[in-house]
Amino acid sequence: MTPPTVVGHSTYGPGPLGVLWTYADRRPDGTYARIGGGPYDPATNTYGQGAFNTDDIARAAVVYLRHYRAHRDAHSRSAAYGLLRGLTYLQTTSGANAGNVVLWMQPDGTLNPSAEPVELPDPSDSGPSYWLARTVWALGEGYEVFRTVDPAFARFLRTRLELALDALDRQVLVHYGSWNIVDGRRVPAWLVVAGADATSEAVLGLSAYVRSGGSARAKQALARFAEAIAAMSAGGVREWPFRALLPWGESISDWHAWGAQMPSALAVASTALHDRRLLAPALGDTAGFTPLLLTAGGPDNGWLPAPIDRTQIAYGVDARLQGLLSVATAADRPGLRQLAAFVAAWYFGANRAGEAVYDATTGRTYDGISAEGVINRNSGAESTIHGLLSMLALDADPTLAARAQALAARPTTTGLQVVEAESAQLSSGAAVVTPPSAWTGESQWSNGSYLTLPPGARAAWTIPAALDARLVLPIVDLVPDRSAGKTKWSTGSTINHGSGGPQGASAAPGALLPVSAGTLPAATTTLTATSTGTNVRIDALLLLPLISRLQLGTNELLVSVDRHPRSVPVAHRGTSYSYTSSGRLHSRRPAITRAEVLPGGFTVVLS
User: Fold this and answer.
1) For the packed helices 54-71 and 74-90, what is the interaxial angle rounded to 10 degrees?
2) What pTM, to 2 d.p., does this model score?
3) 603: helix, strand or coil
4) Is the pLDDT at 465 greater than 90, yes or no?
5) Which residues pair with 33 in a beta bridge?
6) Which DSSP letter does residue 289 get?
7) C-alpha span between 109 and 105 (Å, rounded)
């Protein structure tokens, strides 16, 4: 489409720009309708937000760029060229907001800087944003491709990427070296929109730019952003969030699968910068957290910190897949590619619905699966974009693609279990509290409520027996209050509810966090907690088997949080590959009835 002339917005060369619609809604007859975001006004042919958006234009450009790089496909080169021209038109080129990007465009090409409903920043080019980070991603990968096939266009892309760096320098990197306090934890203050997720997408583009001869300033920005992402590593083998890279710099209680491209970013940055120190946190996330995530049911939209939003979408699945493959290459950990097959199998039916989410006949990816296993058969741009990025990664490795499709069976898991605190039998004085909002500003009360225990009160939970011992991790409200009480648990552990850190930049005092309370033997079916003081709030219990499992057909993934090596039964004969906690292969041997699992490691059994 051809937009109207607007001061401060221009692009490369003449002719129509490449754009794409934001949503594709499935109609009752099975056809699809392209629609924009927000309420539609037929009188003006406009949407409250717009028809086309920067986020999806940028990421679609990456799809075409990667397809062209892999196959030298002329159509993909042309599509990438058109979309990059459309993307750069959305970038503001002059004034106080130069380098930033307008998010929305109407069907006739009119820009809509202030959308309804409101999205921050408002206007959308008035500050750093996810869409600025994604613009950097597309411009970086665009420069890498076009510098050899169209040097003049590549020089234009370089100019626009440097303009985006101007914006990042003055708005984000100006805070380099400063740290925020979030409930007692030091968090880097130079993340794009306080997000390691957003920053990771900028890092993907900066890495491509730097390895293609980008500027010294870009290399410095890449190093600083990668440093910030690496600092978001948290937890341990037995401590929540189990070595994950946290996505949000304003909460230590929040992890989400969507956009969690932090391990991919660290992997490609480590290569571009020749800095292997960045691989340690990336390995923790991929070889440590991701296997546990899979045995818990897969890449959920929100652990807050309990797995509350169990919707799963391609944006989250693709982020896990790309992370595993990128770290496998950068760190020389081929075993992570075996995990990648378990992740990619989601597209082909290894999910709660037991059905394919990717349609190979059209290239369409559906808009996700609910916690109940219902597929949303709409197909917005984001879903198809990330589905295609995953398919391109599989196309690059036919063995991996074949394995992922062979694993396409409805999953059976024995992993992380949530027990709501309010399900307990309560003594006198204990009460269930339902706040006006489950969202605290930085986390969310599981099931919308919590348990409060005054001094001397007791809660007793009845828990199903298990085949293995389980770690007990009560989610409690840790407050920075020395006068707050403690809870004594029947496992022999004590939790100090006043051990929280200073609130700092977080939205609420206190932090909902899973805290270790020992181990529950397999045969034990009761658990109790007794309060010794005030300010005792319990949200839920997380129960994590020492050996958790994911079974896809006759293949298994075994994950250990035990302190000792274990020999465990397997459901089917096969070959077992046992890996250390950092993803190194320890042993490969036949698994007839049992397989070895190392402390903090994972084992893949393939039939």
Assistant:
1) 150
2) 0.98
3) strand
4) no
5) 25
6) I
7) 6
